[in-house]
């Protein structure tokens, strides 16, 4: 019985040992499997780390691509705007080019018209020059007739009238003597008129030889010519200052003779004439007159008197041919003197301005352009 129990115990122990060996073998296999699985897990973990790193890298790359795409889109928008801007500028430039071409065509058409006008004006100038040549020849003929054919009959009328009064006045009635005196006076006025017309014709057609001249010399010559009238009227001619002037000498002498003579002629009764002359070089910008060139130098000559003057509204009227402002019975003259003055001023490309008021004297401002002088600036 005991032996059976021991055999059973031995068999049970053997069985358990086999089982333990199996379990140990299974445990070894399980451990190996576990080690293998752990290695696999580690491999998977490593692969997962690598995958995560790859994922992070790809994510960063995507973000970079997205950022680049944003920049590219912005750049594309900017390029499109620039293209639109350039296109708009090109449209404007094309319109400007079309406008300029049209303007060029207009200018070309205007130039054609201007050239035709210039040709026409040149032809007209040639015609006027031809007419002027003919007129000058006619004027020369008139001058010859005035100085010879008309003067001689006048001298004879004056001579016979003088003889008639001297030899036959006793045989003539008072009215007859009056008629002879009137005839003599008319002949004398006619002779003065012819002399003035001759002077005017010379001022119109004479050669224009300009020379630098001292105005003092011309004024002294005129004073000698008018010495008798100056003494008779007890006149004072005051020369304040005089500059040299570029002029046609003999014409300017006539101009001064006429202006000073006028001041003496139109003096106030019972009051000694006082005539003041002065001149200086000025610049055209100093005088508010459109006829004077801004950058041109002028000799400004002023002649002022204390005579009877004239109404301001006649300041231009007095320079017209045969225009008289005063009664010819009271003041003699032909009305040509100031016309001659204006013609001489025109020959010098100058300007003359008359200023006056009735019974307050008169002032004549003359501006004669001067070459080669430095501008005088008021200081």
Give structural notes.
The chain is an alpha+beta fold and 379 residues long. It has two domains: 1-205, no CATH class; 212-379, Histidine kinase-like ATPase, C-terminal domain (Heat Shock Protein 90). It has helices spanning 2-168, 174-205, 215-225, 227-233, 249-265, 337-347, and strands at 210-214, 236-241, 244-248, 274-283, 297-304, 351-356, 362-369. The strands form two sheets. It has a five-stranded mixed beta sheet with strand order 2-4-5-7-6. Strands 1-3 form a two-stranded antiparallel sheet. Helix 1 runs antiparallel to helix 2, helix 3 (215-225) crosses helix 5 and helix 5 (249-265) packs antiparallel against helix 6 (337-347). The longest helix has 167 residues, at 2-168. The chain is rod-shaped, with a radius of gyration of 60 Å.
What string, H for helix and E for strand, traces the elements in order? Answer: HHEHHEEHEEHEE
What is the spatial order of strands in the main beta sheet?
2-4-5-7-6
Structural class: alpha+beta
Distance between the termini: 165 Å
Mean pLDDT: 82
Radius of gyration: 60 Å
By DSSP, the count of extended strands is: 7
Question: Helix proportion of residues, in percent?
Answer: 55-70%
Low-confidence stretches: 326-331, 373-379
Q: What count of domains describes the coordinates? A: 2
Strand content: 5-15%
Shape: rod-shaped
What is the number of helices? 6
Question: Sheet with the most strands?
Answer: 5 strands, mixed
């Amino acid at each position: 019985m005991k032996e059976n129990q021991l055999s059973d115990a031995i068999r049970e122990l053997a069985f358990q040992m086999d089982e333990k060996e199996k379990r140990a073998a299974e445990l070894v296999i399980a451990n190996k499997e576990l080690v293998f699985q752990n290695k696999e897990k580690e491999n998977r973990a490593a692969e997962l780390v690598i995958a995560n790193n790859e994922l992070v890298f790809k994510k960063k790359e995507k973000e970079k691509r997205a950022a680049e795409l944003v920049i590219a889109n912005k750049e594309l928008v900017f390029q499109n705007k620039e293209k639109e801007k350039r296109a708009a500028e090109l449209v404007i430039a094309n319109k400007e080019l079309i406008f300029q071409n049209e303007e060029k065509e207009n200018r070309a058409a205007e130039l054609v018209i201007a050239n035709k006008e210039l040709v026409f004006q040149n032809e007209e100038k040639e015609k006027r020059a031809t007419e002027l040549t003919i007129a000058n020849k006619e004027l020369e003929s008139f001058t010859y007739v005035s100085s010879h054919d008309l003067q001689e009959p006048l001298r004879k009328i004056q001579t016979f009238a003088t003889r008639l009064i001297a030899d036959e006045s006793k045989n003539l009635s008072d009215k007859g003597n009056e008629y002879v005196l009137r005839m003599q006076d008319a002949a004398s006025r006619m002779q003065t008129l012819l002399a003035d017309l001759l002077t005017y014709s010379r001022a119109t057609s004479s050669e224009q030889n300009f020379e630098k001249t001292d105005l003092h010399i011309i004024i002294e010559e005129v004073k000698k010519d008018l010495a008798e009238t100056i003494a008779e009227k007890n006149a004072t001619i005051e020369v304040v200052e005089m500059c040299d002037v570029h002029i046609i000498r003999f014409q300017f002498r006539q101009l001064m003779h006429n202006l000073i003579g006028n001041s003496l002629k139109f003096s106030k009764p019972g009051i000694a004439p006082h005539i003041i002359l002065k001149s200086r070089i000025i610049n055209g910008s100093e005088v508010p007159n459109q006829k004077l060139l801004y950058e041109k130098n002028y000799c400004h000559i002023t002649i002022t008197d204390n005579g009877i003057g004239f109404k301001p509204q006649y300041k231009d009227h007095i320079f017209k041919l045969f225009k008289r402002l005063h009664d010819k019975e009271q003041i003699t003259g032909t009305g040509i003197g100031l016309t001659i003055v204006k013609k001489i001023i025109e020959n010098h490309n100058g300007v003359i301005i008359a200023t006056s008021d009735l019974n307050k004297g008169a002032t004549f401002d003359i501006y004669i352009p001067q070459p080669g002088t430095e501008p005088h600036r008021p200081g």
